[in-house]
Amino acid sequence: MKALIIAIDGPAAAGKGTLAVALAQHLGLPHLDTGLLYRAVGRLMLLEGRDCEGDDASDVAARLQPSDLKRDDLRLPEVDRAASLVAAQPAVRAALLQRQRDFAAAHGAVMDGRDIGTAVFPDADIKLFVTASAHARAVRRYQQYHGHDPSAAEISQLKAEIEARDHIDSARSVSPLKRAEDAILIETDDLTPDQVLARALDIVARHPKMTAENR
Ligand code: C5P
Q1: Which protein residue has the closest C-alpha to ligand 1 atom 15?
Q2: How many CB atoms are located within 10 Å of the residue 170 CB?
Q3: I need a labelling partner for 153 at 20 to 30 A (CA). Which of 19, 92, 159, 183 fits?
Q4: Cα(208) to centroid of ligand 1, in Å?
Q5: 44, 114, 178: which to mutate for ligand 1, most atoms within 8 A of CB?
Q6: Strand partners, 196
Q7: What's this model's pTM, rounded to 2 decimal places?
Q8: Which tens digit of pLDDT belongs to each residue from 99-157?
Q9: Would you say residue 44 lies in a domain?
């Protein structure tokens, strides 16, 4: 396998993380969930009693250790919000940029996040933008956390939280969540994870680096 860089961007709970893990495994590529970087910064800010919106978090981003990404408390609702807030700070994004580029330098990578195809790897070999309606994403997120279907009230609360985070991510001035012009759109509302993977593998198989290899 030639060093292939695959960028997968999209909003929360659209299925990009599941796709990224499966794709990396299929292709034998390293995988980085870049959301974990922002989650770890947000988590450490909360632990230090600092304000994720008002206080500069770039010192925390600069001293992030690999073990910080393995904490088991990165997916709590308060960390969802803290991550989005620190991610809106330009100095935090700058502090994390080279680390993300270095990750893919040696062997290529599948990287998922919000700005991989637009800012981290604007020249990525393959760019996918994975999305779904806020309703479908709220249902999925609830099922992930609780293992059963949500009530209508629970859906509407989660949907509001997801939309609030979409808004922070899309409205920020630096590296906002947006589809790169050359990203291929995959809408996952009516697709199973296996169908999403099949679609992505089909896109990868047609890439010149892959077809040249098979010649
Ligand atoms: O993907 P995940 O939901 O874990 O990301 C947490 C938060 O980190 C996002 O809401 C977003 O604000 C931020 N993020 C980002 N850029 C990335 C990945 C995540 O701004 N490449």
Answers
A1: 114
A2: 12
A3: 19
A4: 30
A5: 114
A6: none
A7: 0.94
A8: 999 999 989 999 999 999 999 999 999 999 999 999 999 999 888 888 888 888 889 99
A9: yes
